[in-house]
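User: Predict the complex.
Assistant: Input components as received:
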Amino acid sequence: MSALRFIARHIWAEQRRTWLTGLLLATLVLAAGIGLLGLSGWFVTASGAAGLAGIGIAFDFFRPSAGVRLLAMGRTAARYGERLVTHDATLRSLAALRAALLGALAGLPYREMVRVRGARALNRITADVDALDGLPLRLVIPLVAGLTALLGTLALLAWLTAPVLALWSVLSYAAGLAAALAFVALRSRAEARRAETGFQALRTRVVDMLRGQTELVMSGQLEDQRAAVMAADERVRAAERALERSDRIAGFAMQAAGTLAAAGAFAIGAFLVQQGTLSPARLALAFFATLALAEIGPALRRGLAEFGRMADAARRVQRLMEGRGSAGAAPARPAPAEPPAEPAGAAGLALEDLTQSMPEGGRILFEDVSFSIAPGERVALTGRSGCGKSTLLLIAAGLVAPCRGRVRVDGRPVDACPEAELRMVLGLLPQRSALMSGSLREAVRLGAPDLTDVQIRAVLEAVALGPVLDRLGGLDAPLGEGGAGLSGGERRRLALARVLARRPSVLLLDEPTEGLDRATAEAVLAGIHDFLPHAAVLVAAHREAERAWADREVSLDAAARQETVMSGR
Amino acid sequence: MADAPDAAKRRLKALVSPVKARLSRAGGLAVTAELLWIPQAGVIALGLGGLLGAGATALDPFLAAGLFALLGLLRHGLDAWAARFTFEAADAVVAGARAELVAAESLRSPQDGARPASAEIAALAGEKLAALRPYLLRYRPAQLRVMTVPFVIAVAAVLPVSWAVFLILMVAGPLIPVFMALVGFAAREASEKQMVEVGQLNALLLERLAALVDIRLLDARARAVSGFAAAADGLRARTMAVLRIAFLSSTVLELFSALGVAMVAVYVGFALLGEIGFGAWATPLDLREGIFVLMLAPAFFQPLRDLAAAWHDRAAAVAVAGELAARDESRARRILGQGSAAEPLPGPAAIAIRGLSYITPAGRRIAWPDFEVAPGESLAILGPSGIGKSALLALLGGLAAAEAGEVRVADVPLADGTADAWRARLGWVGQAPHFLEASLRVNLTLGAGKVAEARLAEALALAEAGEIVARLPHGLGARLGEAGAGVSGGEARRLMVARAALRAPDVILADEPTADLDARTAASVTEGLLRLNAGGATLIVATHDPALAARMGRQIRLAEAEA
């Protein structure tokens, strides 16, 4: 519940006025509906009584009949306004919630970030925020508007009929609603969670079945995997059946409460009429108004059915939003052990006694790696696959903390450097990078917003994307989702251009020419050097072209044992 | 999706047809429940009449209240009962469609070029198929009620009492289809817009989440968030422009129903006062009749409002059915056999191909020269990219069906009936292995049953993969793949060799086992494969790698054949 409140508060805070208007209109809709039925009932009965008594001519029929028409039109207008306002607010909140989540996640430590960008985590996050879309529209507004309408009806009936009648009508219905709400809140959370985990299992197993299909077929396990998929399906549906059952019972409880409230109101009213303390017309008013109260339930029911799912999703989204990075500052990196006492040392990159092991106490990857790179110097980092080249670059970029040792950029230890300053001087092209939809210009400007078109063209030329620029028809050419429209190698180069555009003085490149043919690779490497001739460059090299381009080589293979081998050229 | 093609509607109909009888039974119950409102209105009218002392046919008010409550509970009970039946039917539809989809996709050949992304199929099998349920639970019952309830109320209950009220309702009556069409059209557009909106919003979010590390490295967090917010706001403004019109037309329906009730109330009031002398059969209308028709008026319009509220459920279901229909149409290529565990095919593991040809998904015909492979042989298949090396291995493994000719294995033709048994004797080393969402141990022993630790260690040593396992945080318990610890391409390839070894296969098919590997890793993989060959297994590799090919006992070079 507290997670739901957290999300609701968040949504509410973003669009306070719009939501308030929507709430007001929703309450008006309910009130007008109750008023319309109550007034109609009163009007018909009073007319009947007057007709029977033969005083029909004296009866003021003008005001009530005008009231009936007014309420009918007013209800419709309020309904239209409510739908517009609340949908607008919902769309705004959807965007705001996602933007807040994005901001929070963008501040996570590197390891968490990598976890979040995996397809499974992404899937879960989208499913969760989608589940929360209905929170204000289907749960909060109907609940608050319903409560307000109940209170208003209580006051009105107490004033126009009899307090005991008013109390019965409103309280008996409210009790039914509350019971249904409590029942669902208690029953559906565990089942909703079960359904959700089942859904995730279903997804994972389907993806496993399809991606691992060849292996599964070859080992005769495809049928078993199919069975595993269908077992997850069975689990999901069992949970959904349980949820439907709770929903059905809650729905019955709400409807029954409405009927019993109206029947009770009629009986109490009839008693009061026989006692002579209430007119039949006012009895009709109370009875019809109570009947109209039943409109509150159905509006809530949809939200109620989704309650468990929402509560479950809210829990996870809250955790993500409050998670280790919501403060807005750079993520927690270990505090600098000592202030950078020594005067700003040599410019460029210096690695001092770096030691790193696999996470969770695994094997040591490399030990006591030390070397430095002066401005304008290019160093190739080599070693067989899996020896920790990428990890070393991540450490150098301040994304991962080493077990031991230190990295200095332009003489300053990276762990003591404020995030923004560090990013200003240090650029990293990671092994995997992602593009976003938008124009080519926007892609390059993501990291360098002040670049002019001429400068953007220059950096694209540097990574041999000039022909692509011509092919696509200029900087305004739109890229699809994830950079669709470009080949794999072109995407890689555009990501590289993004890094170069910031003109870092220390440049870390993780296999920058992967997926490029030899000629292009050499053109790109030459372009990098021409574009940033004074940068200290460390390139995790896999290909001959990259090694040849570098001034010297550092191999990590030997560091896996003890010492660092440097082979100058 | 915009012009809901007939194929989608036909597919939807086919999905529903097995449970049609159950659905109509449930629908009948729901309609009966709805119609119980007529006697409920009747007893209240008579009870109120009794209080006012209006004539002989009155009811004791307390008895009326009791009857009203009883009938009401019966109505809600029937309603819940109907809901349960409907849910069961809907559940059966979803379960059936899911099982069918999973079976069909699992048997689709990996060589099928039209194969959708696995995430797409996962989404279709998961949440998209679940979208069929609201359509069955809400839309269809509402549709059935719209076709029955208003007419029964108008003709059977209202008309006998007052032709004027009947007329008021009937003015709305013929207009109902018109308004439904209007509302439906606009509401569908609105709901589609909204679905697209949420979809696009999610796409925007997802690509930013995928680029989180880049955003951080480029110090672009604030820009990424504000860019997202701006894009989202643009989407919102466009959507609202559509919704403003869509909501207007459904407001017309609301207005009609509200005005209908108001007009009935005003007419009845005036008639009771004697201001209006026409409209009832036995003039004048009396109070009981007035209350009766007043209570029926909202019930007349209710089914229409329900249907309008459920309209987007239909749009969603049609969209899903459309995807299923499109999938059905893409005549999928199948693997041979079922992919289940089977007793190994008996006989010597010899392979012979004769007159074999195959049509690629792109429509190109590939033909292979006839050749035979004796048990224990090692063979390299060479040739330029696209010549059909991988396709040949796929055919030898029964992963696709040939166009003509045959593959004979262990002296029987490789076909649906023999493929599973043949594969029980095969080991496979692919280019880009996928690790299942399970421990490394499970991944390694896939299809090998229970394996002793010693044998596992032996297989890992054979593949020079022992150190990879030692390096992993949880050793054999480590989870690889997307969410787990990473291994490089070369490490994955060596683990696959170990897996092949554990199956103690008679034949090993390896598809480009050394592609993209550095020389040292490539040598490890090659040695591992050769050790298996030395142990007696036939080894067939498709490769570009001259170093690997040189180690094989025989080489077959595929050349461009005239198609």
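Chain B touches chain A through 146 residues (CB under 8 Å).
Let me know if you want any component modeled separately.
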